Amino acid sequence: MRTAIIFGATSGIGKSLTEILVKDGYKIAITGRRLEKLEELKNQYPHQIRIYQNDIQQVEEVERVFHEIVQEFGSIDLVVQSSGVGYINPKLEWTNEIETIRTNVIGVTKLYDLSYNVFKQQGHGHLVGITSIASIRGNRAAPAYFSSKAYQKAYLESLYIKTKTIKSNKVFITDIRPGFVDTAMALGDGIFWMVSLDKAAKQIYSAIKKKKRVAYISKRWSMIAFVLKIVPRWVLKKAI
Ligand SMILES: NC(=O)c1ccc[n+]([C@@H]2O[C@H](COP(=O)([O-])OP(=O)(O)OC[C@H]3O[C@@H](n4cnc5c(N)ncnc54)[C@H](OP(=O)(O)O)[C@@H]3O)[C@@H](O)[C@H]2O)c1
Predict the structure, then answer these.
(1) Which residues contact 30 (CB under 8 A, 6 or more apart)?
(2) Pairing with 174, which of 13, 53, 82, 163 sits 20 to 30 Å away (CA)?
């Protein structure tokens, strides 16, 4: 039986992907802080789901839980890192800034490193990070969120480059960059091209199966990414 870990499975993208993977026959360890949400999923699919409540800001705890899962499952085929927070924070309130950094940067780095190392040791495995279209350029309303996503994008690319040192060629790194998906996380006033959670999760799973390096969700966001990459800074300053 194929095995997976989904970090941030209590709601949104992580939860929908859990349901898809269960239907495709995976045995899955799911995590998040809200125990009752984890239990709901476990009660639906008791034979395929194990639950591990955790807060990824507590990195020592994350490491302990990760090793516990690896020990129980024996080997891990897929890790999906979907946990994250995001705040519109124009006044740069420090509580929001630091929570974003502790979760999206420090916690996520720990998860990426643990996953990469276990895949390297096994000689196979697939790490999928849910980053964002926000990873491409800066933003005045949510600087910490956009910067944290830029960090995740660069880190995943670094791990991809690093897989060159793994002789088996069976370790894969995928960066999923959603635009707007209909979850609690969809940020801001100017929301457009919002996709349903169901559609987003199906497109993400398709990208995972194809072992894509980068995938935009929905696909049309690749056009926005293209424009964002070439647009001069002064235009961003005026427009966004
Ligand atoms: N929705 C969008 O429009 C959109 C667009 C681009 C990128 N994304 C990215 O997609 C990912 C998933 O977000 P979503 O849209 O599915 O939103 P969501 O429903 O709010 O899901 C966020 C998940 O992260 C978990 N999480 C947050 N802080 C955590 C912590 N300290 N420890 C452990 N788990 C934590 C939450 O679980 P608990 O609260 O139970 O801990 C929840 O399961 C995020 O990384 C987000 O940045 C979303």
Answers:
(1) 5, 6, 9, 10, 14, 18, 38, 41, 42, 49, 50, 51, 52
(2) 53
